[in-house]
Amino acid sequence: MIVCKFGGSSVASSSQIIKVKKILEDNPNRRIAVVSAPGKRDKDDEKITDLLYKCNALVRNGSSSKPVFKKVAERFLQIAYELGLDQKPIELVLDDIRYKIDAGSGADYTASRGEYLSAFIISQYLKWEFVDAEDSIIIKSDGTVNPLTYDRLKMVFEDRRKRYVIPGFYGCGDDRMIKTFTRGGSDITGSVVARAVGADLYENWTDVSGIFSADPRLVKDSTVIDEITYKEVRELSDYGASVFHEEAIAPIQNTDIPINIRNTNKPEDKGTMIVPYSEKKKLAGVSVKGGLSRLSLRRLMLFKGQGTRHALLTMLHIFGVRPVYSLYGIDSVVWFFESKSAGESVLDAMCQRLKDEFMLDEIHVDSGYAIMGLVGTNLYESDSYLRAAERLKKENIKTYFMNYGASQVSATFGLKEEDKEKALEVVYDELFR
Ligand code: ASP
Question: pTM for this structure?
Fold first, then answer.
């Protein structure tokens, strides 16, 4: 039993959906397809999900979603027409959806309709059974999956003679209203379904031939990783590698279901296998994430009082600042966070409040940082971390901090944003070429 998830680029047009059909028909064990909303057909195109969020924004500002929803409707009708499907039932569904969007059904409902329509159309084209995620996937308020989901899905997919299409990205909340996962969340749906049915394999079909040991847009000769562990892939995506959603490992964490990242446009490529454990003694990859700011603060005996760390973090949370990396000293702390998460006025207000409430001697925010992560299970047994550090030094690339040990499978280097590409290139050269 194979559960297949097809991402936005794999279902972006009728010609892509024809490839999907071929892939599914090639192997009778591919019995469940999880689909995303149509993505970009080319680099200037718009993703359906982005358009739907725009519709919701229009309604929230008191306007009609009509001008933007028109583009959504045209896209789906064109796909249906080119696949030779009857457009009438789709038109009816589209009318109903637009009515509900304009009536203020909210962001989650609106965004979810991309996946809903995609699955609706693809199920008709394949003549497979349509299963609505709304009825069986329960998403808790913190975005994780309610365990009741697994029994429900098991029942839904019980008939082993049938083949099914289910939309990705959404389910319902504990309040029974439609709720989405975070962006890119169809990967999570794929994992949830794979676990529920006890799949032998979860194939994740996308537009690249697997996970690369470094971003191929930055390191031209980087190669596809043939095997990587659950733990390593989570680390790599946390450092910015974007092929597989970082939250999509959790549902299958305690199973032994392998995930195979495959390319819809090159189905002959083997792709990357994400496995629970691996005997391989190779470094997995290196990735870099930029766009970070740094908040540093200091006060003599700052951490003497109990609960200070917690209180500081709560204050950051109140201002919407979520640290992606922390460094604690005896009287000081440094946090790195995404620059786009807070504007200048918010940061000013936050710094003032922190300074007053914690009687800080110093507080300072600056931007232009990046973090590079080197990932590999055997990092501890090898000298890779030291070699990377030495090479960065030799190339005159300044590191703001280095960390080795927190997760056992990764090492972290703090860099200046402008050095991030060069740092990636030289570390790749040192350790992977
Ligand atoms: N369509 C959603 C998004 O663009 C979810 C997904 O594609 O996985 O984020």
Answer: 0.90
